[in-house]
Amino acid sequence: MKTSYIKIFAVVCTLGVALMASAQAPHSAYFLEGMVQRHELNAAFGGESNYVAIPGIAGLQAGVSSNFGLANFVFQRNDGLVTGLSSQVSADEFIGGMPANNRLEILADIPVVSVGFRALGGFNTIVIKERSFVSANVPSTLFEFLKVGDNTSIPSAQYNIENLSLYTNNYVELALGHSRKLPALEGFSYGAKVKLLAGLFAAEMNMKNIAIDFSAEKWMVEAQGESFLSSGMQYTYDENGVVSGIGIDKFRLGGFGFGVDLGAVYTPAALPELTVSLALNDIGFISWSQVNRAVSEGSYEFTGFDLSEDESAPIDEQLEELSDDVLDMLNLREAAPENHLRSLQTTLNVAAEYAILQRKISFGILSSTRFGAPYTYAEGMAVVNFRPCDWFQASINGSISNLGGALGALINFCPNGINIFAGCDYISPNMKFSEEGIPLYGMRLNLRAGIIVAFGKK
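^ thats the sequence. predicted structure below, dont judge the formating
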C-alpha cells in the first residue's frame, strides 16, 4: 500500500484539526486564578482547588494557524474552478498575491489523565496526554517555478528554492508537577514539572536549497536536503530508486525523551497590586531511533513535469499529479538509518499584571516566544481581566505576533465543585471562508471550552 508523500501529510493535517482536544490553557487564561489548568502555561501556578479533568469534557480545543488559504491556489473561471497553474490564470495573479513563505501549523494535546491536588506542602499535578505538532513551509518560488519555469518560450532561467519543509512530531507525555511558596521570600512561588516522553510517530522533510538551471535542452537541479520517517511507515521507491510515496510499516514506539517545565511568580509585599512571572516550558528532547532516511544531494538532470493538459480534470487529481512530479524533482534516495535527536519546542513566557479595585479588575502583559523547529515564533498579548465575584472571571485581549494581529476573549465560571470555561485566543478581523468553510486568505484560530470537576476548599 502506498500513496504520495504530500497526500499523507495532508491527511495528518486534517486529522490534527479533527482531533484537537487539549488540556493546555489558552494564553488568555494566564492571569485567571480560577482556571485550574493554567499550570500548563507556568509550572509555578497552583490551582485554587483540587481538580480532576474528565476526558471528553475536560476542555475541547481546536487551533490552526496559516498565512494562506484557498483563494491563493484556486480561482473561479467561467463556471468552474481552476488551480493557479492553469493557463487561464496569469503568473502575476497567481504569484503576486502569495506570501513569500506559505506556512501552516496545527498543534494538538489530547488528554488522557489530568489531576491536580494539594499535598507535600504545595500543589501537585499529574498529566498524561498525547501531543502532536504539524507544520509545513512552502516558499512561493516553488510555485513561481511551476508556473513560469515550464514556459518553452523562455530560453533559459534560474530558480533558487529555499527551506521547503514538512514536519510532524507526535508523542505521549507523562508530566509530574509540583509548585509551592518560598517561605524565605514573601510573595514568591516556584514550580517545576518533569516529563517522560514516548515517541509515537515523526516525519520530516527539510530541503535547505533547490537550485534549478533551466534551458531549452535540459533542466539541471542541484538539491541539498533530507527526509526521515520513524516507525509505522516506510518509503516506497520507483524503478530509478527515487522516493515515490509512503507505505505502511509495523508500528512500534519510535523514540524516548525527557522534558522539564520551570516557573516562578513574585508579588512584592511593598506593592501587592503587581505580579510578575516567568516560565520556561518544554525544555528537552526526543531521540528517535533508527529512522528511515532519504537524502537528496549533488547535481542531476530532471526531465521536467508531466502535468495534465486537461484543465477540466478534478482539482484533487491535478494536485496529486503535481505532488508526484515534485517528488521526482526532489530526487530523494534511500540512505542508511540513523538515530535522530530532536529538541522540543521550548517556550518562554514573561508576564506582568497590575490589579485595581481589590483585584476585581487587572491589566496584564504577556510575552510568549517559542523556539525550535520549524521557526521561532514571538507574540505579545495585552489582557484586561475581570473578577466581579469569586465564582466568575473573564478576560479580553489583543495580541500581535510575527503571524499578525488578533483579538480574543475567555469566560470562566468557577463556583465550588466545577470549572466551566469557553473562549478564543485569536480572532483575526480579516478571516473569510468559502461556502465549504475553508479559509480563503489564511486563518489563526484557537477555540476552547470545557468542564472540569473541582473539589476541596478554595
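The chain has one domain: 2-455.
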